[in-house]
Amino acid sequence: MDERKRLFLKRDPYSPPKDETLFLRSVKALAAHHIASCPDYARIAEAAGFTPDALRSEADLFRIPVLPTLYFKRNRLFSVPERKLCVTATSSGTKGAQSLVGFDRKSLLLGIGMMFRFFRYYGVLSPVPVNYIVLGYEPSRHTQMGAIKTAYGTTKFAPALHREYALKDTGTDYALNLDGVKRALLRYAKSPFPVRFVGFPPYMFFLAKLLQNEGIRLKLNRRSMILLGGGWKQFSGEEIDRNAFFRLIEDTLGIPRERCLEFYSAVEHPMAYVRCREGHFHIPSYSRVIVRDPATLLPVPDGTEGLLSFVTPLVTSMPLLSVVTDDIAVRREGPCPCGCGAPYFDLIGRAGVSGIKTCAAGANELLGRQP
Amino acid sequence: MNEALRRLIGGPEKPDVDALKNRILAARSGPALSCEAVIAACAKLSDALNAPEYAALLAAMGMPKERAERELRLARTMLSAEYLRARIKAELGETEDISFTPVGEAFSVRQGWRPLGTLLHISAGNVDALPAFSVIEGLLTGNVNLLKLPREDNGLSAAALELLCEIEPSIRPFVEVFDVPSEDVETLQSLAALADAVVVWGGEEAIRAVRRMVSPDTRIVEWGHKLSFAYFSGEPSDDALRSAAINICATEQLYCSSCQGIFVDTDDFETVCRFAERFAAILSDVSAETPRFGGERVTAQKTLEVYTEQLEALRDPNAKRVFRAEGASVIAYSDSALAASRQFRCPWVKPLPKERLLETLLPYKNLLQTVFLSCPDESREALTALLLRTGAVRITDGRRMSEEYCALPHDGEYPLRRYLKRVSVEI
Description:
Largest sheet of chain A: 7 strands, mixed
Strand order of the largest sheet of chain B: 10-11-12-9-8-13-14
Structural class of chain A: alpha/beta
Helix content of chain A: 25-40%
Structural class of chain B: alpha/beta
Number of domains of chain A: 2
Strand content of chain B: 15-25%
Strand content of chain A: 15-25%
Number of strands of chain A: 15
CATH class of the largest domain in chain B: Alpha Beta
Oligomer: heterodimer
Number of helices of chain A: 10
CATH superfamily of the largest domain in chain B: Aldehyde Dehydrogenase, Chain A, domain 1
Strand order of the largest sheet of chain A: 6-5-4-7-8-9-10
Number of helices of chain B: 16
Shape of chain A: globular
CATH topology of the largest domain in chain A: Rossmann fold
Order of helices and strands of chain A: HHHEHEEHEHEEHEHEHEEEEEEEH
Radius of gyration of chain B: 24 Å
């Protein structure tokens, strides 16, 4: 399986590998591994009538049994003995349920290698020390949310002089630390080093809005950067116009739009997608996006809305080979006016029943359990 | 968290509690609100709702046309003078004061209904215009009504109440509407302090919050969330299965009275599965005939949930089995726990032999509402009695589970009585 290194450790994540069958071969080998090593996955494959031989071309990738992220929130599925897992992380489940994912040493090294190359491509890796504002949770003993680890991990891509957290650990819980963030920011602004902001977009918006309301306009070091991830989804009430958002950031912090990177990722699909200036998430050559019909989960043609799902042969420890998220997206072939030739997806929204009124579901709270 | 951040960039204005206190005092010092005047105003409102533009308005809010028309028809009926008069008579009996000499006493008394005074309605957004109906019950009983609108209110209630005040200006001093967020406990507490009773609609969280917030001198009238289900004993007819399916599809299982699933009078999981498979076919037919509420995103969510259940069922096919139908699914479970369904045409089917019915359902005190009972005629009486003992408050046919009728008790109570007190005056 070491072939996968050639797939994941490429310098340019978007250029297709010379070996055209490398992706499919890796997927096939990994599918066989999960079926052989994870009895639950083998049962799922059997029920779906799937064997790795069914993968004759990439057009067959949709045949791999797709597992919903919801499934991982309620079930643990490993293809290696649990003692071999060296890192675990949980998703930031909005309603209690959280996915537990675990990585073995090999997958982890491959993933870290991939991420380093990916971030280097975007100029995120830098030897110049920076001051960080983390618009999210401070790492703590009492939680192991993946989003925290990602945010913290992101502060390793350039040496950290100082980190200030918007949500500070109080030992048992978190407290909002907006004043601390503001004070740190004013201090950072006087220092000659760049500033990096890491975290959820809505918090970035509020921070910029807060500065604007107080008439604060900073001119941060021009190598400063904003790294946003985790999506806008927890934040449905306030639809923020992206252009207005980036204008606000340039006005209040002096950071130009091209220094703001927006990421998409999921705990169950541990890789990053970056939004280009045209608003599209381009797909690296080591991953495939399949948009699926909301009723049948079968693939829909490019340009049609459906459930966003991914195929990637990165993880050995869990059958994360083909997963479907609850995001609604559209896939399109490149090239894109931004210059990237790779296909991309656009996020449209999220599956769910929010906004629909219900009283029977409320009664479930009283039962203290889901059916 | 987001709420705290949102407040940084400005939130709604707080109501002026002192001014409100004075207005309440003025309303309560003035002439009593005439019940007949409220009935007449409601009747006029009912006529006004006849206009086709209201159906169009509801349709524009995302409600399927048929359902919009059905809801409007229901609202018109429930606001008609005939309906309201009949309801008041059924719920309160004699509305005039009565005089009598108590047994063994030498004096006479006059007894009658009087309003509690001031009601604070903390309303849920789960039924359209429910806040307005809650306030109208408060008006019929002569109370001053403070209404906190639900967060996801669509404006129907405030518009309906405004129309009512325009029709009958004497109502205006008895209605105050606020847009206070539920997190603003301080303001809600000061509003509750002005009220004789807090009427709360909603889930456990809402009710718990009100119980914490309200001081012991204030009565709390709780209209909490409930669960309803079907109980099938004996060989079911296709028509009985169909009537459960009709309720499931028409209400999308969203209401307290919606059928969440079916308990089958058996101990055997295989029987439950055969039942579920047969029901899935019927549900599929009914589903195809019934317009859907909720769009593509709801479909996507339900597809993921049901598919996840299907994958889980592979782990233990003796605990759970999924029967997918076109646009609907039936999930058979081997346990007998009462639960909300996944909703949107995803009922459960579970075993529950009648011998274990009482012990299984008793723990769900105050949670049971409507039961659709399907059984042979000879066991109907005994099963009805048994189901009522579990705490269920309505036994009905599947088709009528979520239908109102005049003087139907609400969750086992007559609401109007809860907004009144019985007074005694010696004469």
